[in-house]
Amino acid sequence: MARSARELFEEAMRLDPEERATLMRLLIESLDAESEEGAADAWVAEVERRMAELDSGAVQSISWDELRARLYRR
């Protein structure tokens, strides 16, 4: 017989904090695996594209202070 989410939660709350953290990580990873298939490869490609733009001079970086000032002016 399958237990409800509430029953599983109540049982999990009896675990020590480290075991609860492990359970939480495993549950989150199971969701990430389902919803973000290929996301890691897409992020690597995006980072590489942005690095190439910086290296080629196609874009210029700005400091955090400048970015914050621009945002506050909006």
Give a topology summary.
Blueprint: H1 5-12, H2 17-35, H3 39-56, H4 64-73
Question: Can you offer a commentary on this structure?
Answer:
This protein is an all-alpha fold and 74 residues long. The chain has two domains: 5-35, no CATH class; 41-73, no CATH class. Helix content is 74%, strand content 0%. The protein has four helices and no strands. The mean pLDDT is 90.
Q: Mean of residue pLDDT?
A: 90
Helix-strand category = mainly alpha
Shape: elongated
Query: Mind summarizing the main beta sheet?
Result: none
Count of β-strands: 0
Task: Quickly count the helices.
Answer: 4
Brief summary:
With 74 residues, the chain is an all-alpha fold.
Features:
single chain, 74 residues, 4 helices, mainly alpha, elongated
